[in-house]
Amino acid sequence: MVGETKTQQRRTFLKAVGGAAALSTITGRLDSVQDEAVKIGVYGPLTGPVSNIGADMRKGATLAADQINENGPGPRMQLFFGDSESEPARGRSAVESLLDRQQVDIIAGGFHSDVSLAVIEVTSARNVPQMISNSVSGAINAKMKQQNMRNVFKMSPPSESYGLGWQQFIDELQQRGDGYFPFAEKRIAMIAETTSYGISVMDATVRYLERSGWNIISQDEVAVDETNFTSLLTRVRAANPDIVWAVQTSPSSGANLIKQFRQIGFQDTHFMHTFVPSDPETIRLAGGAANGVLWMANIDVIPRFAQEIGLTEAWRQQYGTEIPGSAGSLPYDNLQIIAKSLESIGSVSELNVDSWERAVINLESHQGSAGYYDFPQGEPFHQAEWGIETIPALGYQIVNQESGLVWPPRYNETNIDNSLYQ
After folding, report:
1. In this structure, what is the dihedral angle of CA atoms 240, 242, 246, 251, given to the nearest 10 degrees?
2. What's this model's pTM, rounded to 2 decimal places?
3. Angle at which helices 326-345 and 353-362 pack, to 10 degrees?
C-alpha cells in the first residue's frame, strides 16, 4: 500500500477484512443481546509502591464509565478492577482472574511496562481485545509486532517519544540560554529505575541526546522503591555534570531523589525528571526542593484539550479536585476510545478480534485529554501515532509547588521562570 493515504489504506484494509467468510470469536460468553453491558477489566497498581497511581486510574476509568452509561457512545459498561501490585506475575494473575472469574470481554488500563509485557501474552493467547492506556516501553511495541498481536492496541507513545522530546526540549533551552544554559561541555548524568519502562526511556533519551552532541558521563540504575541516593549523587557530583536527569514512577522515591539532589549541593546544575512529577504527591513530598525542577511527560493532560472535551469540569464535580495528570486522564481516554470502537461494532455479541481490530483502525482521530488518538493500519503496528500534531511530549517547570507547562510553544501555558536559577 505504498503511496496510499491513511484513509485509502483503511479502506483497503476494511475491504479485505470484510470479505472474510468468517470472523474469529473470543469466547462463547459473548452470545448476548444487543443491550447487554460490556464487561471491562481494568488492571493497574492498586496496592504497592505506586498505589496512588492505581487509585487515580480507577477514578479516571470510573468517571468515563459513568458518563458512557449515561450518555453513550456504545453499550453500557460494567467495570471490574485487577491489582497488578506493580509486579508482572501479579499483573498476569490479576488479568487471568478478570477473564476466568469475572468473564470480562475487554482488558483496559495498564501501568508499568514489565506488567503489560506479561499481560499481553495472556490476552493474545485467549484472543481477548485489549487497549493499553499508560504503559510506555517500546518493548511492548516490539512484542506486539513480532507476534502479530492483533487483539492489542497501545495508546501511550513508546520510549522513543521521550528521547525525541528531551532532545528537542534541551536543545531549545541551550539555544535560548534559559536557566544555567548554555553549557560548553554538555555533560549529562543519567539515573533510571530498574524497570523495562525506566531502562527503555533512559536508553532512548541517551540515543537522541548523543545525536545533538551531549556527553553522557554516567548511567545508573536504582530500584523502584529506593529512598537513599546520597552515595550515588555524591559520586555523580564529583563528575561535574551540567544536568542530572532521572526517570522514576514512585512518588516517594522521586521526591527523595529531588530532596537529596538539593542537599548534596550541586552548583549551576539542572535537575531534570521524567514522568513522576506528573503525580502531585511527588511535588508535595519534595517540598521546596522541587522548585526549579524541569520535567517531561511523553503523554499528559493538555489543559485546553481537557477543557474542550469536558473532562476538567467533570473531574472537579465528581472528585472535588483537579485532574491528577495522566494517571487519571489516560484511563478516561482509554474507555472513551473503547466505547467509540464498540459503537461502530454494533453490539457486544459481535465483538471479536477481527471486528475489534477493524473498529479501532477505522476510528477517526479521537480528541482526548492528551491530544488526538489515531491508530493507522500498518506502521506503527497498533500504536497510536505520536508527535506534535497528534500526541506531543510536554515539558514542565515546577514553581512554588505547581507544575507549569512551558514546552512546546504551541501548547505552553507559561514561560520558564529564570529567576529560580540565579
Report:
1. 90
2. 0.84
3. 110
